């Protein structure tokens, strides 16, 4: 039986992001970072003090990862960049698709191999299967690991690091791959979940310590929880219809932060959803799997 999980939910920021995305928890700082892709901007929130900071990005910013050197790796429309919060400087690392002007980098996350994995998406209204998944190694080299995607999304890893999850939002499918941590390579792509319309399209995802994959069901206003075998166990209802990504944080990793968007919502939809674009925090009964930092 599919359960509805009614966990305590809190509004952290109700500014109404255009496309809120990529929440990333810093264990070292005990703070949360996230982005608004189209503003474009990077944000930091300190739960202890309530203090917020923001930095303007030089281009659309699809996702970020914390790095072991104290900086941030960002997936911008113009390629992978370093961002130094101390100096507020952006520095290009490399661009994986300079020849495809209508694509931009989208969802990304550092894997247990210490590399930043991020995929692209076709940014045109009439989206085509011209996107790919890339691996940015700590030495700055880039390798492609799958193409013919429409909207790359949903990256996350199992607690033991041996399984990688990845989705194509436009095709409404979540994939799984065997993952070689030592070499940062993937096994054959397998269908993990074929989404049903009432579950929404699969956007950003995260994994808990039990190995369950939690996926934002954009358009359905929920977070879907799948077992390691791909069975829908239940869902967390949300006060917004377009959640974009979830990530575990807090000192015990039992707070799940969720971003959302307002992009392309009609006036009547916005009137019905005053919290559209907000950042939420949900008190979870099970902790999340820690996300690695970029570097070796």
UniProtKB/TrEMBL annotation:
InterPro entries the UniProt entry points to: 6-blade_b-propeller_TolB-like, SGL, SMP-30
Residues in SMP-30/Gluconolactonase/LRE-like region domain copies: 19-261
EC number: 3.1.1.17
Residue numbers annotated as active site: 203
Cofactor(s) the record lists: Zn(2+)
Top enzyme class: hydrolase
Protein name: Gluconolactonase
